[in-house]
């Protein structure tokens, strides 16, 4: 793609969408993982501790379901603790790697292959009531997805000039949500609650096995498409001038020089962004980790309703990602993120008033209640609001480094998010155990979202990137010259 001084920088939408296949595989796997694994852990610990399934426990003594959530939280947190350590390591390693296929691609290919092989063994071990085997497979998947994730995410800023990264990140995230949509369709086709609520002798392993197999296959296909279409080394050479121009137009408090320590202004900006990010991921991951159990054990509704939530939230997120770059051009990334956090907060306040309907769903074989429609509105607000947040936050972090340290700063971004995801499952599990009430979930998320908005709005400076004459229409979709 040729850069001309008169027209300014030009975002290549086609190439950006192809890079998005990396995020497609990431979100596909994590959506399946987050939707199924907490419920797997709840059920398997119920069987080992109370010698009855979680469905039997729900019917006889539902408070005991809350008693095992802290254990579920610890297992989920241990995964994230490993990620907290590994993401910066793989980011640093990939920054320094040189191979004929690029510096990110070797990690993407190896991580995808091993994760895809191990992933279907999680439900297999669960079905056979093997805690050690199931947890071991979860750990293997997590380690190799961390090998994949950081380099895959760093690929976009590697070949996208700084002023264009918010818009590019919107496209990347939309591609990721297509992955999440595939996982959602799997959740609608293979209803987890029908497996969980069935007697042990009637549990059909394929209900839980097929979603994991399909996710693995699609993840491998997405990595193959990425490998065949994105030539890292060639693109890095072609885009040197554009990347240099983007560096001059960056939205930073002080110029970036690799030969000098990070300026105080830029360091303070980085710490403020990461601190706020830690808090909003504490909130968002709490909802993502426990919403399946919240729906099954508190609302006593069918698990496929969670997938409908995901669809609505995903559609709202796609809209948010599609317009976040344009909003950021108008009001800046800081105020785009702050607006997104406040929209999310409003949704979570509404969630605090959601209650089980106590109306048995027509045709339900297990006496499940109808799903409260108010929660759909909550997920739309949350999906749109957090799309504005995620779209602009990552570009703000990698704006503060040169092209030589993108993997390292991607590691900082994920270190903040993963440390939050390490703390929040355990902390919320203990809160649920102490409160003995699922209603503590939205209150917990509300408080953290408000705190993150306060930290971000008060401590992060609003600095706009240099003006970019973005090319639009057919020319914007053209291939590289």
- Beta-strand content: under 5%
Quantity of strands, as a count: 0
Overall pLDDT level: 82
Secondary-structure element order, N to C: HHHHHHHHHHHHHHHHHH
Fraction of helical residues: over 70%
Oligomer: single chain
Please give the radius of gyration in angstroms: 22 Å
Low-confidence stretches: 1-7, 466-481
Put simply, the count of helices is 18
Question: Your description of this structure?
Answer:
The chain has about 475 residues and is mostly helical. It is about 75% helix and about 0% strand. It is built from 18 helices and no strands. Helix 6 runs antiparallel to helix 7 and helix 14 crosses helix 16. The longest helix has about 35 residues. The protein is globular. The N terminus and C terminus are likely disordered.
Properties at a glance:
18 helices; 481 residues; disordered C terminus; disordered N terminus; globular; single chain; mainly alpha
Structure at a glance:
This protein has helices at about 15-50, 55-60, 65, 70-95, 105-120, 120-125, 130-160, 165-190, 190-195, 205-230, 230-240, 240-250, 265-300, 305-330, 335-350, 375-400, 405-435, 440-460.
